User: Which sequence fits this backbone?
């Protein structure tokens, strides 16, 4: 249970003054639904009103606070012209400018002849200084109401800066005193102060240097966040390692049959990965291994061969995919190979209902199924195994750590876990998402693959692209046509895809198909099947096809509004072609004008197909939080820490977490208890459940 001291931080944002139902929605969109979310939303700028020049001294562009005498009001002759107010001091004159002004209001706040304090940005117009729409217009006696330093927050449309400032100020007034979870020597060595004070300082920058991620207050908060992450991973890991492993060693008889049936020889990288997996499975430790391999590097076969050794040794294996389509495709791909070897394979997805589902469940529990492939339906309570020795989790970035564990705990005794990632994850991220899982890399593509010819074209040349398709179709090409990711919403994406589908249908007729996330699974399957057998030649799709879909005869990938996709996504999508022996191409259609980042992404896509390089570039361009899309990624999105520039802090947090857990694995010491608060603060509650007294 969350400690009571944290309750105010976890209250909804509407509990803050000035945040009503309308603004609440906007704050939620910007930062999150809770007070603490808003507190992690740190300022990105600063207004400094401490400069108070005379009119003769004022500089172009500066924020100035000036004491002046109000002179003549000059209302505009037409509505489009500004309302002007002349002001002066003993050094000169200037004008204050208002657009769409209400004269009665201005006469009230700036009566002629009065002394006023005005604060705002001064700009020179035809050589003369003027201030338009001052931020503050106060009577000299009210000057105390004006903050001299104001933090500026990143905003979202419709959310006023002042509302955010006010809400944060009030949240800061009610900060609880929390026990110190950091080592005091470490704090001293870094020149950091306590949490409470750090948070206040981070929101009340005194100079632009305070906005730097390495400024002491921010660095401390970032370190808190990283430590919470590493500690949570450490706890999960401890818990997983606590279960003893078992020795699983096949005699190779099934493997040989399958290898003989494969139309290709394994690559050196596949053989190396397999040897590493074999040795893990044979050992008495339980395996926690990450199989990293770029799209098309052939992870599935490695997983199958690993699962076969479990079956040879008399155990069961399970493979979990993130979507129905993928689970079905794995099943369809593995089926003939399993049949060859006499291995009993079953499929279980959320769609299976009634009798068939009962039968699959019963057969799995009785051990009449050797390998089961499925979606997250596999880790529902009712799914029981007779002896699950190996759990393979494919395309895992859609799953969280907890889900992976759920499947692994099905084995009772320590089930070996092989996590496959299709997105090459940069080293730093591996550390944050997996801690110290062992890693096997497939860093070699199957031979005979031709590079994918990647081109970029502005969208206004769509007609040319369409005009070129009949020739490609005549050559027998099959085409993916991916529609823009408008928002992270299936509905909106689907609408765009539906429209393009209609359009292409009107040109090319019945050879055009459509898949998107909102369709019924059975309809999706049907369309995918028709694409696989070549009934459908042009498949219009949303990013449902992003991960794992494998139709080797498809050789053209068109991505509409490529500028809206992240690099990792573009790379994943392009990875859907170039899988067979035919020459493939990828067309990136983009909307002009192209932003700087989008242009850089497209350039990188044209330069390289190396997934690891692309992932590094992606991290550089976007920052880790966004790397794989947002929440659904299963990778932690850091609120404060920037692991690209704060690698040293991450490394320190990693060491720190190990040391803490070595000394105090149940977090029972004084500091341990404080660290529990830290875990709650950063919503790593999941990890606390792994403590004995959690
Ligand atoms: P991914 O790593 O993206 O999951 P897959 O396992 O789907 O890749 O493999 C991509 C394609 O490459 C499949 O069609 C698979 O049959 C084929 N493949 C796998 N290993 C080899 C190999 N050693 N030689 C040739 N083709 C291979
Ligand atoms: Mg795959």
Assistant:
């Amino acid at each position: 249970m969350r400690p009571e001291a944290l309750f105010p931080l976890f209250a909804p944002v509407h509990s803050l003054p000035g945040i009503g139902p309308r603004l609440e929605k906007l704050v939620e969109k910007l930062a999150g639904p809770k007070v603490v979310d808003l507190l992690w939303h740190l300022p990105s700028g600063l207004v400094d009103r401490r400069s108070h020049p005379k009119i003769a001294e004022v500089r172009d562009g500066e924020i100035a606070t000036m004491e002046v005498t109000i002179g003549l009001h000059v209302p505009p002759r037409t509505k489009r012209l500004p309302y002007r107010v002349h002001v002066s001091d003993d050094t000169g004159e200037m004008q204050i400018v208002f657009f769409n002004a209400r004269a009665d209001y201005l006469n009230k706040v700036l009566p002629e002849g009065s002394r006023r304090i005005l604060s705002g940005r001064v700009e020179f117009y035809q050589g003369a200084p003027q201030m338009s729409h001052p931020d503050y217009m106060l009577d000299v006696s009210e000057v105390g109401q004006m903050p001299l330093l104001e933090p500026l927050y990143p905003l979202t449309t419709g959310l006023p800066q002042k509302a955010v400032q006010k809400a944060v100020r009030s949240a800061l007034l009610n900060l609880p005193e929390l026990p110190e979870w950091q080592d005091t020597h470490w704090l001293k060595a870094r020149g950091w102060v306590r949490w409470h004070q750090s948070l206040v300082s981070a929101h009340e920058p005194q100079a632009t240097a305070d906005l730097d991620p390495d400024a002491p207050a921010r660095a401390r908060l970032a370190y808190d966040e990283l430590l919470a992450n590493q500690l949570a991973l450490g706890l999960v890991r401890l818990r997983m390692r606590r279960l003893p492993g078992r020795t699983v060693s096949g005699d190779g008889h099934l493997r040989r049959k399958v290898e003989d049936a494969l139309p290709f020889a394994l690559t050196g990288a596949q053989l190396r990965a397999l040897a590493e997996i074999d040795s893990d499975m044979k050992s008495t430790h339980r395996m926690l291994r990450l199989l990293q391999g770029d799209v098309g590097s052939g992870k599935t076969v490695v997983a199958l061969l690993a699962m076969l050794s479990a079956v040879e040794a008399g155990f069961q294996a399970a493979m979990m995919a993130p979507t129905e389509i993928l689970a079905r495709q794995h099943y369809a791909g593995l089926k003939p190979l399993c049949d060859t070897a006499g291995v009993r394979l079953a499929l279980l997805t959320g769609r299976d209902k009634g009798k068939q589902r009962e039968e699959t469940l019963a057969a799995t529990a009785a051990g009449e199924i050797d390998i089961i492939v499925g979606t997250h339906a596999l880790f529902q309570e009712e799914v029981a195994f007779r002896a699950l020795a190996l759990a393979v989790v494919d395309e895992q970035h859609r799953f969280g750590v907890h889900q992976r564990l759920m499947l692994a705990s099905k084995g009772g005794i320590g089930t070996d876990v092989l996590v496959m990632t299709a997105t090459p994850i940069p080293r730093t991220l591996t550390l944050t998402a997996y801690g110290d899982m062992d890693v096997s890399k497939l860093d070699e593509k199957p031979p005979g693959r031709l590079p994918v010819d990647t081109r970029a074209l502005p969208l206004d040349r769509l007609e040319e692209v369409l005009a070129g398709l009949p020739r490609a179709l005549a050559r027998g090409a099959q085409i993916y046509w991916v529609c823009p990711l408008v928002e992270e919403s299936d509905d909106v994406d689907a609408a765009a895809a539906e429209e393009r589908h209609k359009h292409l249908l009107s040109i090319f007729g019945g050879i055009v198909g459509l898949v998107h996330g909102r369709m019924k699974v059975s309809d999706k399957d049907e369309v995918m099947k028709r694409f696989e057998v070549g009934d459908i030649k042009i498949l219009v799709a949303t990013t449902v096809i992003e991960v794992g879909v494998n139709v080797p005869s498809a050789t053209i990938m068109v991505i509409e509004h490529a500028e809206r996709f992240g690099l990792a996504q573009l790379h994943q999508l392009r990875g859907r072609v170039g899988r067979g022996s035919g020459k493939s191409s990828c067309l990136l259609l983009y909307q002009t004008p192209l932003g700087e980042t989008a242009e850089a992404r497209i350039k990188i896509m044209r330069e390289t197909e190396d997934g690891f390089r692309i992932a590094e570039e992606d991290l550089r361009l976007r920052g880790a939080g966004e790397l794989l899309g947002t929440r659904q990624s299963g990778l932690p999105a850091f609120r404060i820490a920037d692991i690209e520039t704060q690698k040293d802090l991450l490394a320190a947090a990693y060491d720190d977490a190990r040391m803490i857990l070595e000394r105090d694995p149940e977090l029972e010491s004084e500091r341990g208890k404080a660290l529990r608060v830290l875990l709650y603060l950063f919503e790593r509650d999941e990890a606390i459940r792994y403590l004995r007294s959690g």
Q: What stands out?
A: The domain at 50-146 is CATH 2.40.50.140 (OB fold (Dihydrolipoamide Acetyltransferase, E2P)). Residues 353 and 550 are 27 Å apart (CA to CA). The chain has four domains: 4-46+154-211, 50-146, 253-442, 453-608. The first helix runs from residue 21 to 30.
